[in-house]
Amino acid sequence: MDIPIWVWLLTGTAVVGLLIFDFFAHVRHSHEPTLREAAIWSGVYIGLGVLFGVLLIPLLGPDAAATYYASYITEKALSVDNLFVFLVIISTFNVPCRLQQRVLLFGIILALIVRSVFILLGRD
User: Fold this and answer.
1) How many domains does the chain have?
2) pTM for the full predicted model
3) How far is CA 24 from CA 17, 28, 71, 105, in A?
4) Percent with pLDDT over 90 in the chain
């Protein structure tokens, strides 16, 4: 399936924009999040992921949307081990609760960068 370059650029820009928003609007001020706050933010980001798949239907067709949703669900399932690794790191270094969101965000950004490098190195 050939995805137009503008879709990749738009997607990359949206991801970077969301990370910048998350850092400057949310994580910049260290605080201990409540369960309610975590649930709301999780719902917002999951909703954005679902909305992205819905937008793919008119843009690239139902096959592209189905491929996206299959990948999204797989990635969600595989992300559980990443959370375990972050939990081990955060608890090993005794990161205070108010700083854990920031550490987690930087860990996610680092993981995205490393994953992107490996994907680009593995291309034909």
Assistant:
1) 1
2) 0.72
3) 11, 5, 29, 11
4) 38
Local confidence band at 124 (pLDDT 50, 70, 90 cut-offs) = low
Residue from 20, 38, 42, 5 nearest 112 by CA: 20
Q: With a cut of 90, say whether residue 119 has pLDDT above it.
A: no
Question: Which residue range(s) make up the domain with 81?
Answer: 5-121
- The full 3-state SS of the chain, as one line of letters, equals CCCCHHHHHHHHHHHHHHHHHHHHHHHCCCCCCCHHHHHHHHHHHHHHHHHHHHHHHHHHCHHHHHHHHHHHHHHHHHHHHHHHHHHHHHHHCCCCHHHHHHHHHHHHHHHHHHHHHHHHHCCC
Average of per-residue pLDDT values in the chain: 88
For 68-107, what is each residue's pLDDT tens digit?
A: 999 999 988 888 888 888 889 899 999 998 888 888 888 8
Cβ atoms of 102 and 86 within 8 Å: the answer is: no
What are all long-range contacts of 64-71, with beta carbons under 8 Å and residues at least 24 apart? 64/1, 64/3, 67/1
